[in-house]
Hints:
Radius of gyration of chain B: 21 Å
Strand order of the largest sheet of chain B: 1-2
Number of domains of chain A: 1
Largest interface: A-B, 44 and 45 residues
Low-confidence stretches of chain B: none
Number of strands of chain B: 2
Low-confidence stretches of chain A: 101-117
Distance between the termini of chain A: 44 Å
Structural class of chain A: mainly alpha
Oligomer: heterodimer
CATH topology of chain A: Helix Hairpins
Order of helices and strands of chain A: HHH
Number of domains of chain B: 3
Strand content of chain B: under 5%
Shape of chain A: elongated
Helix content of chain A: 55-70%
Helix content of chain B: over 70%
Order of helices and strands of chain B: HHEEHHHHHHHHHHHHHHHHHH
Distance between the termini of chain B: 18 Å
Strand content of chain A: under 5%
Mean pLDDT of chain B: 91
Largest sheet of chain B: 2 strands, antiparallel
Number of strands of chain A: 0
Shape of chain B: globular
Largest sheet of chain A: none
Amino acid sequence: MVETGFTVYLLAGAGVFIIGFHALLAQAHLLRRIMALNVMGSGVFMVFIALSARTAGEAPDPVPHAMVLTGIVVSVCATGLALALADRLQSVTGATELEGGPAPGPNAGSGGEESHP
Amino acid sequence: MTASWAMAVLVLGPLGGAAGAFAFPKGGRRLAGVAAVTAVLALLVLAREVVTNGVQLHRVGGWSAPLGIDLRGDGLAVLMLAITALIAGAVTLYAPPYFLPLAGAESRDRERWFWPLFLFLWSALNALFLSRDIFNLYVTLELLGFAAVTLVALAGKREALTATMRYLLVSLPASLFYLMGVALVYGQCATVDLSLLAAKAERGPVLWVALALMTGGLVAKAALFPLHFWLPPAHASAPAPVSALLSALVVKGPYYILLRLWFEAFPALMTPAVAQGLGALGAVAIVWGSIHALMQARLKLLVAYSTVAQLGYLFLLFPLAAVREGGWLAWNGGLLFLAAHACAKTALFLTAGNILQAAGHDRIKGLDGMTQVLPVSAFAFGLAGLSLAGLPPSSGFAGKWLLLSASLAQGQWWWAAVILGGSLLAAAYVMRVLSHAFTQVALATKPRPLPAVQEWTALVLAALAVGLGLAAQGPLDLLRLGAPVVLGGAGP
């Protein structure tokens, strides 16, 4: 039953995406947040792969596969960039988390939106 | 054929320059110069082709739309490419003297990385404006984001690195939200091509969710209220030429995709609620950003908050252009405003960089006597401020005037009130700076003179921000070519 499998994978992909996004907001440690982004990405890729089987009984659609491959390349680059930046941030500030306080300047008080604990 | 080459060069020229500058850091400046000249020439060729022969389509590798990747040069794309070439060209002139006095190993390092990243950014922007499918737009959006984020980190200080990380942690999930939307669109319509989607898209739950995800991600990247919080620290802590690129160009990338999505690919889903909602967020951004700009103690943060406010105006285009009568006026007004903002904001950030280098600080209270020290920069700030506040005959005025006319013709008077109120607030924060700058003081020490290029690039852009208002007809006529069907255009 291709149809059932399709729905399960689609919902699981959406679930993984949401779990990743939750972790991104809830976690403070930069390494955990970068991992959360990777989990979100995996969720998107799962949805893509599920979609390639959306028509029952036919050969899977190769276009989403090509898109996932591109997505993985982008995701590897993003992770590399984020890790390098986190490393530099730690060597300059000694912190592994973003400072929770408001942005620089006395009145940059939009800090309320950045309410990551 | 000629146009195909021009489009390829627009993307590959800066990209080749970036690779060269990365491999041979000493030649960075020269390579940037060559890449800039090449890109501008290619743009002129493309513009001429588009004006004489209409919309130009290039199928990469000879594969057609459902499988292959299309590049398309139409009026809107050419306008965006031209704005990009203008700002990037100015930055190419401004950056060498800007980085020069920062001697020492650390700053040499900074200039070394600036050139490849800057050219990479330019290439990504050109590719984004020429792309015709929503997946390719995702890829270019990510390339743009990587270059932009890394450029902010160049400042290297604690403050800048924190701002960079915050920017990255907004930019990456925003892209993933957009990509999830792309997946759902493909699942529903079996294509990612903008033109083909227009024919296939019908209202339904899957496409609503997809568009909500995509719009959410793009709005975060375009720093629309309430997702603007990352912008002021990132734009204010970057080196001046980088701030200019970010405020004038980078945030316009995701905005451009929003225009393509809502007006070209999915006009069927553009309900009054969507249009009014995006407009309402824009209106709040105008008020919120302007009030915060008024309260800043530092010049660069004032200019950055002003960007938050000015981006709000761009989103007024949605409720005003979505109505058939007067929609075309609003479309023109919004895009003219975009060009005006790009010129004015670049001038302001470059001026702020000049002040920072000459005075060693950018505290607004300490700007007394600026006209005596940096007369050209002060004049540039004044002219750019004129456009920001929307005083005639500036292009800021012309753009707002078109938006205003559309809103009154459609009976949507509330947007007119927002446009006028925002102009008053902008005038107030510009005057706050100018009142200090024009205060005459006895100067204790003679400040370090700046290279003329740094002052004059700012002035030329400020003059353009004003002058475009008088010569807007040509660029606006260009917009007719390949305009969205909902706006009375012939479409693809």
